[in-house]
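Postdoc handover notes: sequence design on the structure in folder B. Input tokens:
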């Protein structure tokens, strides 16, 4: 368990995480943040590109699971249904508790978590002992989020691996 805010991998967007990349890493469980990772805040459905990406991964044997801090059960469950995966809402990241519960039937070496925020998503993944993958936020929604993302830039700059 690491208390590091530095992501293991940085990808511009979810579709950059190809089945081949995940297979090379031995990833069979890919946990995903919802807001600004799968879809922008307030969106009601994932983009068609994300749905196609999710189908490719599932067809290739990767299990997807949404782990969101959102308290909006209906919204998180709707996205999970559209992606054909399980979900946990109100996960309280960066606590690793929800991530560990999701991966109870998996070896941590075969799990990864993807999110747009360093202080919740990356830190939570690192604390859970899984591959942490940071993605670029989908949309800048307000000045406070922009300021937080700006404060995260030094940690993103220290990322061990960048996908192009």
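Designed sequence:
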């Amino acid at each position: 368990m690491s208390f590091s805010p530095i992501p293991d991998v940085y990808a511009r967007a979810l579709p950059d995480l190809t089945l081949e990349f995940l297979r090379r890493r031995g990833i069979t469980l890919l946990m995903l943040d919802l807001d600004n990772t799968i879809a922008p805040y307030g969106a009601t459905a994932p983009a068609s590109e994300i749905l196609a990406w999710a189908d490719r991964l599932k067809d290739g044997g990767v299990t997807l699971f949404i782990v969101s801090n959102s308290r909006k059960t209906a919204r998180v469950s709707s996205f999970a249904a559209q992606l054909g995966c399980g979900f946990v809402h109100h996960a309280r990241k960066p606590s690793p508790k929800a991530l560990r519960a999701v991966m109870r039937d998996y070896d941590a070496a075969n799990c990864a978590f993807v999110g747009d925020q360093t202080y919740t998503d990356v830190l939570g993944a690192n604390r859970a002992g899984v591959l942490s993958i940071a993605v670029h936020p989908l949309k800048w929604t307000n000045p406070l989020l922009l300021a937080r993302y700006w404060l995260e830039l030094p940690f993103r700059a220290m990322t061990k691996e960048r996908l192009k």
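Context for whoever picks this up: The chain is about 40% helix and 15% strand. Don't rerun without checking with the PI first.
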